[in-house]
Amino acid sequence: MMVLVVGAGRVGSAVAKSSLAAGHTVSVLDEDPLSHERLDAGQPTSWEDAGGRFTVGTAIEIDALLAAGVEEADVFIAATRGDNTNLLVAQIAQKRFGCDHVIVRVLDPARSDWYAEQGLHTICAVKLGIAMFEKAITDIAAT
Q: What residues make up the domain containing 125?
């Protein structure tokens, strides 16, 4: 399976590395060439020697998405630090390139819910954090 990860920050690089370790073909797109260091960190070989692909480019540019392999992607993950960028490129991957499996990181819980209703698979760390805090409070109150 080919996984395209847009954004090589802490989340994107960790998902890319675990996907590659699981035997998937993985391509990463990031506008910062230095973000490549996260992909190499803690690895016995370089990202490319391990079979990964890295493209420097801006996620909202069609040419960069094409260079990163959007047309080959079975799974498209938008994991930049910006909700607007993630939501835009996720819709491009889904609507323009027909990628069936699009997963998008969204920080704003309200936007996450709305875009999920529109058919995007959203992951919202803020919602998960809220739920964990609420459960911790409930657990403490029960003791």
A: 2-141
